[in-house]
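Known limitations

Structure tokens in this collection are predictions and should be treated as such. Users comparing against experimental data should check residue numbering before alignment. To illustrate the layout, the record for UDP-glucose 6-dehydrogenase is reproduced below. The input appears on top and the generated tokens appear beneath it.
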Amino acid sequence: PTHITKVCCIGAGYVGGPTCAVIADRCPHIKVTIVDISVERIRLWNEGPLPIYEPGLEEVVGRCRGRNLFFTTDVTRAIEEAELIFVSVNTPTKTSGLGAGMAADLKYIEAATRMIVDASTSNKIIVEKSTVPCRTAQSILTILENNCRPNVCFQVLSNPEFLAEGTAIADLQAPDRILIGGMNSPAGKDAQEALVKIYSNWVPRKRIITTNLWSSELSKLAANAMLAQRISSVNALSALCEATGADIDEVATAVGWDTRIGPNFLKAGVGFGGSCFHKDILNLVYLCESLNLPEVAHYWKQVVDLNEYQKTRFVRKIISNLFHTVSNKRIAILGFAFKKNTGDTRETPALTVVDCLLAEDAQLSIYDPVVSHEQMLEDISSLRRPNGTSNITLNTDVYEACKEADALVVCTEWDQFKTLDYKRIYQSMRKPAFIFDGRLILDPIELRQIGFSVEIIGKSQPITSAWK
Ligand code: NAI
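Generated tokens:
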């Protein structure tokens, strides 16, 4: 197979950056150049602070940058010299036109494809890293074939990324599996083998799966749909737990011991967020609808619907416990990122909570250890509430955020929230002092002893009995 010595990655985001930094780290013999159209993003990758927060990323970039890892906006040159090109551009949900709110917007994929074909004077292997609808490789190939210079050939591979934000570096260094889809021709197999060889530098061969293109593209959507489905299933059960007195953590543990089910990814909470689950499931639903499979579409749509239900259910719980009014009450929002160990706020459930509470005229103080205040303001402004962000205070000190609050609402499972001085916080709050734990990380017994009124998703109040 082709021996790859130069790799280019288009898109220096949450996927392109960490993925290709790890490739550079593990393959010192390969020159890796990451390009982006965003001048600011490239500047930050080069000069710091890194544009994304991910544990372990700084060390990896620090080891390779300037050695065999480069960040540049000179897209043309990087494409021209590369033998293999990852396409890691964003594929957000379309906001208007056909399939608005459901289908993936492929304009960035197409633009990247056209940039590639324009700049290519030699054969290239194009690797879809972005999550795309099934059969996108065909569109890419058609654009390439119709615009390429004479004697320039392309192969298209699908190599979806399964990393999870917050643990991206660990996931990339020891992936559960690497999936590489390719065409079933000699040249296709050759291209597949060239990419297998890159990953083989650190991934055991048995964990590298090769399939046809469409299986690979669909597997990414399927994996995200099934992961999100687990969360929606456990969240649906959490509502049942609250109504019956069962405890969702106990139920999830008991269920997860079944080896067919397994213990991971069964944590109830305020709802899933992140840039991928929501958009990829809707993308899958749209695909099913366009292929005239309404029952299948309906099945997967429920996963998203249940997630919306879970978020608003949590807010309803907050409001009803606060005596059915939060007007002018001060509520501290603990955590704004969509999960711990990331600064990413895309589709964060915290924003839904903020939105609903602002609609009820609450005063919010928000604290997150990583998300920048600019990012929070941008997200909250996008809600277009009549009062804008005037009912919001952003805090850099968690104790300050909790001061004089009527309630604390845990929206992100940051470890530091488990070990706060809750006695001190309780003393600084208005009484009765409430805690709503949307991530099931706090110890209700300890908090109730301090004096808090504690509400946790999937758990009802303890059984009361005269016999202690
Ligand atoms: P992102 O928005 O962080 O990064 C995409 C980057 O591509 C941006 O910096 C943008 O400026 C750049 N870009 C867009 N068009 C370009 C062009 N023509 N030339 C050069 N640069 C261009 O997005 P993220 O999160 O990295 O996601 C990328 C893809 O990976 C998406 O399809 C996503 O669904 C998928 N994915 C994301 C995961 C995640 O955890 N964020 C995990 C697995 C897959």
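For this record: Residues 6-203 form a domain with the Rossmann fold fold (CATH 3.40.50.720). The CA atoms of residues 163 and 206 lie 18 Å apart. Please report discrepancies through the issue tracker.
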